[in-house]
Amino acid sequence: MNPLRQHRRVLTASLTGTAVEFYDFYVFATATALVFGELFFPKSSPEVQGIAKFMVFGLAFIARPIGAVAFGHFGDRVGRKATLVASLLLMGASTLLVAFLPGYADAGFFAPLLLCILRFGQGLGLGGEWGGAALLATENAPKGWESRFGAAPQLGAPLGFLAANGLFLLLGLWLSDADFLNWGWRVPFLASAVLVGIGLWVRLNIGETAQFREALDRAPPPAVPLWALLRDHGGAVLAGSAGVVACFALFYLSTAFALDIGTRQLGYPRETFLSLQLAANLFLALGIVIAAWLSDRTSAGRMILWGAVATIGVGLLFAPGLAGGTLAIFLTLATALFVMGFVYGPLGGWLTTLYPVPVRYSGVSVAFNAGGIVGGAVTPLVAKAMTDAGHGDAIGYLLVAAGALTVLGVSLARPAPAAG
């Protein structure tokens, strides 16, 4: 096949899958902020509703490392392509079924239980998604283009966010609050089936990565890739996990948490705050593109390090920015998401260098999703608890801590030997 055509297919497959991933994940995040408290925990106080719904939201981050281990095992033994198809199917089915869930008024205790099960299933599928997409891009990249190819999955994030946020915004404009609460919120979950279908079609039309085929020619894959990974590369797993904390913390504090605070405590109309986030999302895409381009000219680790230091600065301004007026909120969110581009865009090019090919799917997936527990599950939950306890002016220090962890992880990381 023509190399240019093959590169286009690879980049499209990487970008499309991650766009679906972020769409699926963010429709859940948006629904968590806007409706899940009232629908699934109606008998609780607003404060308890807030904690409960963010605990359900955080379940996916517990499931993601389990999915990373499971899909990483098959990704390292069977191949990248088949594993990516399976992860997308599980993720898509779990998201679609949320659209058909009954609320607490109809099913009682079983309603939040089913929500938890589907959220866990969503997390399992997501656990194997990003790592495989990053490998699909970087293991097919021309020399010197690793970070730019590796940024293709990351560019799926603003696209997925744009689709999810934009659809919720349109529904909010078209529907009354009662209709939105009764059935409108289900539409984005139904729409995910279309995106998953597109993602599957693209991925079924690509081949296996060259580096994986070459590794199989040299030696059979490890019987248990996770054991080989932890035995020989445990330090790289810890460093990689710390290195991704800042990107998760920036994203979920700037999106799900900020939306919840903006609409419930600050009193902004839902459509106004969604519009602010939609515009700020453009800066995430800009940050990813700039960081990926610079990474191939310097190094991916250096760009992430710069972004981590900037995350600390964002943390010092985050709480005052959210407490300001509309312009201050927009500038805060735009700055946070632009900085996220620097700690997220180069991740594909950086994490893949830490592990040799035979255990790379497991290494990248485990590190990415373990760091996601701290940055994406714990951080918004702690921020919500701090705000409810009257300490909202200190939530930015969570970003300071996340940035410091990422600085530590990148500083301690060392590339794996070139010949895995």
Question: How would you briefly describe this protein structure?
Answer:
With 420 residues, the protein is mostly helical.
Write the layout of secondary structure elements.
Elements: H1 3-40, H2 46-77, H3 80-98, H4 104-107, H5 110-127, H6 129-138, H7 146-150, H8 152-174, H9 177-182, H10 187-203, H11 210-218, H12 225-264, H13 270-295, H14 300-322, H15 326-344, H16 347-351, H17 360-388, H18 396-412
Helix pairs in contact: 1-2, 1-3, 1-5, 1-6, 1-8, 1-10, 1-12, 2-3, 2-5, 2-17, 3-5, 3-6, 3-10, 6-17, 8-13, 12-13, 12-14, 12-15, 12-17, 12-18, 13-14, 13-15, 14-15, 14-18
Membrane topology: Multi-pass membrane protein
InterPro entries: MFS_dom (IPR020846), MFS_sugar_transport-like (IPR005828), MFS_trans_sf (IPR036259)
GO cellular component, one term: plasma membrane
CATH topology: Growth Hormone, Chain: A
How many domains is the backbone divided into?
Answer: 1
Query: What helical percentage do the residues reach?
Result: over 70%
User: Which CATH architecture?
Assistant: Up-down Bundle
Report mean pLDDT, rounded to a whole number: 87
CA-based gyration radius: 20 Å
Which class in CATH terms?
Mainly Alpha
The tally of strands reads: 0
Distance between the termini: 27 Å
**Uncertain residue segments:** none
Q: Write the CATH homologous superfamily.
A: MFS general substrate transporter like domains
Number of helices: 18
Could you give the order of the helices and strands? HHHHHHHHHHHHHHHHHH
Approximate strand percentage: under 5%
Largest sheet: none
Dominant shape: globular
Question: Structural class of the secondary structure composition?
Answer: mainly alpha
